[in-house]
Amino acid sequence: MKSITFNHQNTSAIGIGTWHIGEGNNMMTESEMAAMRYGLDHGINVIDTAEMYGEGKSETLIGNVLKDYHRNDIQLISKFYPYHATPKLIEESLKASLKRLQTDYLDLYLLHWRGKTPLSETVIGLERMVKAGLIRNWGVSNFDRSDLEELFSVPDGENCRINEDLYNIGSRGIEYSVLPWQKKNHVSFIGYSPFGSDGGEFLKIKPVLTEMAQQKGVSVHQLLLAWVLRNHDLLSIPKTSSVEHMQSNLEAIDISFTKDELELLDKYYPAPKNEGRLEMI
């Protein structure tokens, strides 16, 4: 398994995303659990979830899987709603997540997106959870550069370890200023939805992708994931609901691109040329 430096640790090149995981029937749940176990058994050591995912069903499924693994070998990430962003509600949400996940700590706890609670209050709550030993570090999600700059301006805001945003070949907004800012300030990045959304509104599959995938002897989904991973400087967290899909994701890690191939993809899916509003799923 190739690795990257993420959250100041040696981390697998991809993680396991869990949006919509645990929301189906018993057969689907068994398939999802088998896929997660396969990923963990083959070197993946990051799982990303949230209290929002199935209103706790995703966390419950993960907890049932992790009973069979050494907790310290896995970086476990969860997120809390923006309307749970006060110190009191952060603690309540965190303890509920820990119970569902069957663990006594999280490696990272993230504000899922910005709400009405001042960032200064949210940071106070997160720092308290660090001191209490319930989380090791904390971060944010769906923040743009101005949000991150504001976060760093409040007391202890610079303790933010990661930011998680939408990132795929059709949604490249973070490349303009978010990624450079995070690299400069040593904040790790997670890109979610490398294949776009289920409805396809965030990623249109153009013929160039199908043709290039055929030339390389890989699937379009493998090509999309390999493109996100091309610079080996961020973590992508594809959702996987079957062992077959997990195997496909793992194989995508070894796909590389020539300079000409990347330039061709840039032609059809151009990088941002100015600061714009980031897309969010």
From TrEMBL:
<feature type="domain" description="NADP-dependent oxidoreductase">
    <location>
        <begin position="13"/>
        <end position="268"/>
    </location>
</feature>
<dbReference type="InterPro" id="IPR020471">
    <property type="entry name" value="AKR"/>
</dbReference>
<dbReference type="InterPro" id="IPR023210">
    <property type="entry name" value="NADP_OxRdtase_dom"/>
</dbReference>
<dbReference type="InterPro" id="IPR036812">
    <property type="entry name" value="NAD(P)_OxRdtase_dom_sf"/>
</dbReference>
<dbReference type="GO" id="GO:0016491">
    <property type="term" value="F:oxidoreductase activity"/>
</dbReference>
<dbReference type="Pfam" id="PF00248">
    <property type="entry name" value="Aldo_ket_red"/>
</dbReference>
<protein>
    <submittedName>
        <fullName>Aldo/keto reductase</fullName>
    </submittedName>
</protein>
